[in-house]
Amino acid sequence: MTGAETGATYAAAGVDIEAGDRAVELMKTWVARATRPEVVGGLGGFSGLFDASKLAGYRRPLLATATDGVGTKVDVARKLDKHDTIGLDLVAMVVDDLVVCGAEPLFLTDYLVFGKVVPEKVAAVVKGIAEGCVQAGCALIGGETAEHPGLLGPDEYDVAGAATGVVEADDLLGAERVREGDAVIALASSGLHSNGYSLARHVFFDRAGWGLDRHVAEFGRTLGEELLEPTRIYAPACLELARAVDVHAYAHITGGGIPGNLVRVLPEGLTARVDRASWTPPVVFQVIAELGQVARPELEKTFNMGVGMMAVVAPEDAEQALALLSERGILAWVAGEIVRGSGEVELYGDYQP
Q: Which intervals hold domain PurM-like C-terminal (predicted)?
């Protein structure tokens, strides 16, 4: 080694500790909003603390946990250089898995990994996560921000999160509660949500050659704005609905679509019959089908087709359930029923134009 050479440093290897510290300072304001009375301490510890004495009021509390990411939707955010909504998607994907069993989301932790930490970008992502937690009623009690130069490009990143919730054992929702004659209620999605983006991106970018700045008349906005529409968060409305009416099960309609997710809450010997004619899917699904010549079975096993959550309720409570969801600003309708069968989801009819 010559005298002109200097020792290796973390910064020279691509990791900027000072940028990470700056990112933490910028995100503190947003994290402070996403709290609950049970949170102990603040940002900066090695772990998040949550006062579990809340559980003392339960007869038999069951803890529920879920973890997820947002898939290749982050590629859209990266290309648009708009990072303050992807966190909403993350929270939605996690807490709406929790609420399926009737669990109230309590707290969430996140994991953010960047090729290069840009403090303002990190803060924007965390802002969306914090806003999602506020909407969901859970606390953001900790997380990790990592910088992985060489593994990710300088403008690449990914997000993941895990959340914990609680449900009274007697109130646990699921297949064991579902009965013949139950109504299947569909809750409208806000669009693609956070599933099927590999197929959507392939159709729009690779096959059609569209750019994110392309104005699409059918959407009434640009392709980028359509693809970055945040995932709807259903958890608070679903918890309220379960307290008000006889809900037997929920199904979060994510990857696998309606057939692949509603089937997960069906007991042996019962089938869910879902009438496509009960709704009109958002136009984005039609555009994908036409541009990519995507067959309907492929669409329906990839995308939510306009339904982000489904509730299986006692038939006599269906009307009250629809009224409550309407009050919460969620479009909902009776899409089908539970009948005797072989434990599958049967989609029939044609979508309304």
A: 179-343
Where are the extended beta strands (E) located within the chain?
39-40, 49-50, 61-69, 104-114, 139-147, 157-168, 183-188, 215-216, 221-222, 247-252, 270-275, 307-313, 332-340, 345-348
Checking if the pLDDT of 340 tops 70, the result is yes
Q: Looking at the domain that runs over 175-348, which CATH code has it been given?
A: 3.90.650.10
Q: How confident is the model at residue 40 (pLDDT cuts 50, 70, 90)?
A: confident
Determine if the pTM surpasses 0.90. yes
pLDDT at position 27 over 70:
no
CA distance 24 to 122: 8
> Which residues, including other chains, have CB under 8 Å from residue 218's CB and lie 6 or more apart?
283, 284, 286, 287
Residue 90, both tokens? 């993350």
Say what angle helices 119-136 and 235-244 make with each other, to 10 degrees.
10
Half-sphere exposure at residue 159, Cβ-oriented, CA atoms within 13 angstroms: 32
CA-based nearest residue to 140, from 113, 106, 92, 107: 107
* Single-letter amino acid code for the residue at 231: T
Q: According to CATH, where is 3.90.650.10 located in the chain?
A: 175-348
Q: Quote the pLDDT of residue 1.
A: 47
Task: Tokens 């009623």: give the residue.
Answer: 137
Among 34-38, 104-108, 211-215, 305-309, which is the least confidently predicted range?
Answer: 34-38
Determine which of 246-250, 312-316, 342-346 has the lowest per-residue pLDDT on average. Answer: 342-346
CATH number of 15-168: 3.30.1330.10
Taking the C-alpha atoms of residue 351 and residue 353, their distance in angstroms, rounded to an integer, is 6
Of 134, 114, 88, 102, give the one whose Cα is nearest residue 23: 114
